[in-house]
Write a structure and sequence with these properties.
582 residues; eight-stranded mixed sheet; five-stranded parallel sheet; globular; binds 3-acetylpyridine adenine dinucleotide
Length: 582
Amino acid sequence: MMADATTRPERAAEVGAVFDAIVVGAGFAGMYMLHRLRGLGFSARVFEVGGGVGGTWYWNRYPGARCDVESMQYSFSFSEELDQEWNWSEKYAPQPEILSYANHVADRFDLRRRIVFDTRVIAATFNEKAKCWLIETDRGDRVTAKFCIMAAGCLSAPNRPKFKGLEDFRGPIYHTGEWPHQGVDFTGLRVGVIGTGSSAIQSIPIIAQQASALTVFQRTATWSVPAWNEKLSPEYLQAAKADYPALRAKARARPTGFYFPFNTQPALEASAQDREAQYEQAWARGGLPFLGSYGDLLFEKAANDTIADFARRKIRGIVKDPVTAELLCPDNVFGCKRLCVDTGYFETYNLPHVKLVDVSRTPIERFTADGIEVNGVEYPLDAVVCATGFAAMTGSFDKIRITGRNGLTLSEKWRAGPRAYLGIASVGFPNLFMITGPGSPSVLASMIQAIEQHVDWLADCIGHMRDVGATTIEPIPSDEDAWVEHVNEVSTVSLRSTCSSWYVGANIPGRPRVFMPYIGGFPIYVQKCNEVVSSGFDGFALEGTPLSDAAPQVRYTERWRVPIDIDVISPAAVAARRVPMV
Ligand code: N01
């Protein structure tokens, strides 16, 4: 929880200081950016709203929060020493362990001294004459920097639907994305959970263990695959670490930026019997790789129907009450919304004190003093958990008044949907960079790998600007337009663009409907970024230097120049625009 104005530590506002770079956010992106900036000898300051590092993992402390990318891969890969010295305890790390890891990184790389906590950046304004950014915070700080780097996260602006009567409810209302640090004890309480996305699916089985009654309000049934989480043995860790660099390299070549066995064969070419065996095997392995059972699952509706049928049969096999089981069976494309990974989610509905309320046709009407009313029925509750997600991808930008050239604000520019070249920078906002911004693979890749690749690219870019004495860098409008068009075009190839998910901003009324992340595959995107570096930042205009044609020195992006895994992303598949994406 953010310290409020009365509890956060006193400090004097900083006015007039000048830095090479200001970084907004001290999650994994902000921390690694700071590390690279320091490595290049740039002065930098990070502002962070929270009282500590970790970003997503600082805020999302709800019961059961854990990562659904395997721990050995959901971690920084820039330091072999770090890889070797850190030991993950479980296949999928729980939130406290990931937060400990973030703190370990902050200490090990001596990052804290340059991070100012409990401070929200409220405005960033480009000064055209001085060619620098003025950054203002809610503590009264006013500092300037040549570069402003947004590392505020893709899923960090909580979505709080404005239900009628919220203020009437007598009990506490929590949001999974801003969970109290002291934890919440639900013992003996009647608890309501709104939402059935990843956060709900992880927290519901744990809350059910404490609550005397649990009522889940479901608007859209969710596809979920068992995690089969387990402890990692010392032998496993030793063997995995012995081969760590190879695993990291294989991961970089994958469409998602993390490695798992992937079957490129089309589901529709397999016999029904073979498909069943394949799905059983993949279900038994569990997790997100289930979607890699066949290569055409996200491209052909008929292929997708086969995996959807299989998963529905699994749900019906687990949930004993047939009416509840049917309500829990999604009728949308399998994996269209972000696939969930659970431990005992569907089984929880077999408990006598757990009830599922369908709010798909008759939405939540209002909160009352004692509960939630749906379709004229009041469900009595002592506490409510909103697992209602986030204003994804652009929500963290919306919270800051970002003003570029000619007084144009980013929110105005993005009114009809975000526009950014490579998801890194946007025309009209010179020297403003975004880490995992809209138009980059971001949330469709393993986040830490997506972050590292962006930061390394930015480090090479900023280093080059210093080498050639450039004052500003900004995308060329035609290149930005072409990239945005490409991002849109590629998205239509995938079935993922067909449903109302947060990927398209459809979870929040009034947001423009645009497929925001780049779905063409992580290595394809990285290749494009590498070409931009090699060509001397093709697609960008550099100002203030007569040396704009000088060949850039590749300092940090070298490790991303891996051969594309031809088995997974064949040129033919790319040419046919059938890039296998998970
Ligand atoms: O949020 P969500 P989340 N009335 O948007 C429902 C990552 N993550 O926090 O689907 C009733 O997925 C909404 O219904 P609908 C991961 O990328 C990762 O769970 O819009 N219901 C939905 O069921 C994930 O995808 C992990 O119809 C309302 C739910 O609230 C992303 O974060 C763990 C409603 C929101 O689901 C977001 O996940 C957790 C309303 N007015 C999160 N408004 C890992 O394991 C919304 N809903 C890594």
